[in-house]
Amino acid sequence: MNLFAEAFAWMLAPEQWTGNYALPKLLAEHLALTAISVLIAAVIAVPIGWLIGHTGKGREIAVAVSGAARAIPAFGLMILLVLLLGVLRIPEAAVITFVLLAIPSLLAGAYTGLEAIDRRIIDAAKAMGMTSWQVFWKVEVRLGLPLLVGGIRSALLQVIATVTIAAYVNLGGLGWPIIQGIPLQKFDQVLAGAILVAALALVVDLLLAAAQHAAVPAGLRTGSAPKRRERARSQASATATATA
Amino acid sequence: MFTARGKRSVFAVGLVAAAALALTACASSNPLDEPSDSGESSGSGDTIVIGSQAYYSNEIIAEIYAQALEAADVKVDRQFSIGQRDAYWPDVESGDIDIFPEYTGSLLEFISDDEIDVTSPDDVFAALQDTLPEGLTALDYAEASDQDSYTVLKSFAEENGLTTIGDLSKVTSQVTIGAAPEFEQRPYSPAAAKEVYGVDLTFSATGPTTLESLLAGQIQVADIYTADPAFETEEIVALEDPENLIISSNVVPIVSSDIADDVSDVLNAISAKLTGEELVALNVLSTVDQQSSADIAKKWLEDNDLV
Fold it and tell me: Which of A25, A26, A78, A170 best tests the B interface by mutation, with the highest count of B CBs <10 A?
């Protein structure tokens, strides 16, 4: 039988929906680890990214650190931390690993979002009398939101893919079928686990793509809106000249 | 939103992906299957190739085989620390590696397609001999084993009066057993222990941290392999298995059938002297005293009058 068919058969078998390693439970564990890690990473990385983007200083360091941090071998780091912190601190060791993995994308999303804003808009905001904080929150953060959501999307995908290794240190997650299936040589199980992780990543990616699209302010979206405004403006000027 | 060019490239990508998926229908169920070789014998008739796993204990045993054969004027080529079975077994099957120190039970689990219902050392050995392909022979197995166990802290055993696995039902609080992830599905899993001994155990996939978790008190029972040096260095004891729940896994030399007669005397003599305690002691010399496998093997062979 085709290995893909066997993998789907495994997924739908009733044993996989009850007990300590039921697929819904593994999914919940996977999402929980991902969410906690990305949240902590965001609390650390996003303010720093905003600071770098707002002041324009420290960009080179941020780029260098982001680049280097992406190269961390997550599995090796997690095992190292488990050895250092001890068996009673396994969840902390794993979360630290995933946080370090998520930081580069979030940092990049935060500061590129702010850097991409046209300086004239900031000048215009200041000219309108906004204070520094108002400029920051109402203009910079709002306009930088799409790229920040892009950074969140990238971080989430990386972490979802990597949380599969958490099963190796007894934290569950969708990596469990893979990690148990390989020594048992049950490749339908291994493939099923891989398909589930990939499917989760795709679903999250689509949701965040939609969020990223929605984060662009209505007036800046490409498409029919400017054309309508162009037409309305030219009609208005036509009627104005006609009536004048 | 999509331009015409965008739509076409999305369609093309989708088509390629669908084609790739369809092609995998040609794949076999086991992606790690090697295309089957007709058993070739190894190159030069003189040199015998001995392999070992990437496991220090297995390497010590392989080094013992190697030195004993060299003392018998056989030329030996050492290929140690190859990796796990997925990595080295195809070479053993094809004859590229002539001698490999293996473990009866776990090798049987690896090569057998059927359910295994034997557990005692003799039965497992006989089943292994039946299941091995034509070109391979299993020589005598040693008393030394490296098999799963239900191990507890000595203090825990004394407090609760435990000698056998069945005694675990005397413990009133929750008993958790920690082991590698695949343990949950093995024929000697906690579920099987419930059937055979009537004990209720919760499973925790502690994997690489199993020993530490036992010593830290996170789990009450641990699957510690019987050759682990911790049996000498820590205060732990393996519970007895009178119903033979756990599959035996004794040290056994797997050799290419065409050289089996030439090496059997030497290797069987080694297996006769290699007891469980001896193997644990060898492992302690490696992990605690940090001696090299060559030194450990040399001393052991001399102490046992095998060279």
Answer: A170
Residue tagged 């819904």 (tokens): A24
B259-285 residue pLDDT tens: 999 999 999 999 999 999 999 999 999
For residue range A109-163, what is the model confidence (pLDDT) as tens digits? Answer: 999 999 999 999 999 999 999 998 998 999 999 999 999 999 999 999 999 999 9
For residues A80-102, give the mean pLDDT: 94
C-alpha–C-alpha distance, residues B251 and B241, integer Å: 19
Query: Tell me, what's the pLDDT at B32?
Result: 61
Give the gap in angstroms from C-alpha B253 to the nearest C-alpha of chain A: 22
Contact with chain B for residue A21, Cβ under 8 A: yes
* CA proximity to B175, closest of B188, B195, B187, B193: B193
Give the mutation candidate from A2, A6, A21, A87 for the B interface (greatest B CB count, under 10 A).
A87
Q: How many CB pairs under 8 A join A and B?
A: 65
Enter the DSSP assignment of B73. T
Nearest to B182 among A1, A4, A184 (CB): A184
Question: Closest-CA residue in chain A for B209?
Answer: A87
Cα A69 to Cα A115, A157, B160: the distances in Å are 21, 16, 50
DSSP per-residue codes, A148-203: HHHHHHHHHHHHHHHGGGGGGGT--STTHHHHHHHHHT-HHHHHHHHHHHHHHHHH
What length does chain A have?
A: 244
State pLDDT tens for residues A152-200.
999 999 999 999 999 999 999 999 999 999 988 899 999 999 999 999 9
User: Tokens 């682990």 — which residue?
Assistant: B228
Report ipTM for this prediction.
0.76
Which residue, among B248, B249, B267, has the nearest Cα to B98 in the 3D structure? B267
- Contact (Cβ atoms closer than 8 angstroms) between residue B83 and residue B111: no
Count of C-beta atoms within a 10 Å radius of residue B137: 18
Q: Name which of A30, A11, A16 is nearest A204 in CA terms.
A: A30
SS3 state at B35: coil
Structure tokens at B24: 């995998």
Query: How long, in residues, is chain B?
Result: 307
Using 70 as the pLDDT threshold, list the residues of chain B that sit under it.
Answer: 1-6, 20-45
Q: What percent of chain A has pLDDT over 90?
A: 72
Q: Point out the residue among A1, A90, A180 whose CB comes nearest to the CB of B184.
A: A180
Q: Is B129 within 8 Å of chain A by CB?
A: no
Select from B1, B203, B213 the Cβ nearest to the Cβ of A87: B213
- Six-digit token pair at B236? 């732990």
Burial of A89 (0-12, 13-18, 19+ CB in 10 A): middle
Q: Do B1 and A223 touch (CB under 8 A)?
A: yes
